[in-house]
Design brief:
Elements lengths: L1 E5 L2 E4 L4 E8 L5 E9 L6 E7 L4 E3 L7 E6 L4 E6 L8 E9 L2 E5 L3 E6 L1
Parallel strand pairs: 2-11
Antiparallel strand pairs: 1-3, 3-8, 4-5, 4-9, 5-6, 7-8, 9-10, 9-11
């Protein structure tokens, strides 16, 4: 499985940004997709996940502000981020878990939130 993330950029605090991640390859075996992020000097942390059933999970800091969604026909997962904060600044990575292994990682996309 190959993952291509896009949509990162520079945004002002309080603004929105939507990330996309397109999966290719053996996508039929994907059962879980998610987003992680890693801020400078910090450990990588899980932000949100979405299963094939549509069930979602969020880290506490993302609840109420971020929404993960999935377009199965396009093999794409999205992370809609609202009310962004400076502390959301990080490199965001999409991941996919498959029946054949994983997680697989995308290349990362930089999100920078300015005050």
């Amino acid at each position: 499985v190959q993952l291509q993330a896009s949509g990162g950029g520079l945004v002002q605090a309080g603004g929105p940004l939507t990330l996309s991640c397109a999966a290719s390859g053996s996508t039929f075996s994907i059962y879980l997709m998610g987003w992680y992020r890693q801020a400078p000097g910090k450990q990588r942390e899980l932000v949100a996940t979405i299963g094939n059933s549509g069930k979602t999970t969020y880290t506490d800091s993302a609840k109420g502000r971020f929404t993960i969604s999935r377009n199965n026909a396009r093999n794409t997962v999205y992370l809609q981020m609202n009310s962004l904060k400076v502390e959301d600044t990080a490199v965001y990575y999409c991941t996919a878990n498959t029946l054949r292994g994983g997680p697989y990682w995308g290349q990362g996309t930089q999100v920078t939130v300015s005050s």
